[in-house]
Amino acid sequence: MLTPPDTPAGWPPGAEPVFTRRDIDAALDRLAARLTADLADSHPVALTVLHGGLVFAGHLLPRLAFRLTTDYVHATRYRGAQRGSELVWIARPATALAGRTVLLLDDIYDEGFTLESLAAFCRDMGAARVVSAVLLRKHHHRPTAALQPDYHALEVDDRYVFGFGMDIHHEWRNANGIYAVPQSGGEAAA
């Protein structure tokens, strides 16, 4: 975990540790056990949501002890901002989803509109079943999508978090833990 003397250049001012790598690894082990118990016989397509879900999926997938197909989708509402807007498609999956169980893997469930849109897309492509797993589930009182994640590894309060796949202004996805930045002006951060 980074401490002030070890803080690299460009580190977000006032960033505080929320989850250590040890916390994350333990949570991923628990999540992988649940997913293995629930999905082992379904031969799912694990569909990683880029860029945020990349690190999460990279650490989760080797823990899953069953046959699966991997692919990705790149759709975003944030584009480096702290608040989301409408969904922008960058890349759709190459794997046929018709008749398959799809496991959507994303970094964080905040308001859920990206996840809801992606699940609808998978159903429109003929997926027999769509389940979702996120690294973090955020608690807040803002409106959320009707679709909730089926699985989550960790929970976090309503703070802007980064690291372990989540970015702050397109940077620090590589931080080896999860950190929060101070909120400005009393606004809830996404």
Notes on the structure:
The chain is α/β, with parallel strands linked by helices and about 190 residues long. It has helices at about 20-40, 55-60, 115-125; strands at about 15-20, 45-50, 70-75, 90, 100-110, 130-140, 150-155, 160, 180. The protein has one domain: Rossmann fold (3-Layer(aba) Sandwich), CATH 3.40.50. The strands form 2 sheets. The chain has a 6-stranded mixed beta sheet with strand order 4-3-2-5-6-7. The longest helix is centred in the first third of the chain and has 19 residues, at about 20-40. The protein starts with 15 loop residues before the first strand and ends in a 9-residue tail after the last strand.
TL;DR?
21% of the residues lie in helices and 28% in strands. It is α/β, with parallel strands linked by helices and 190 residues long.
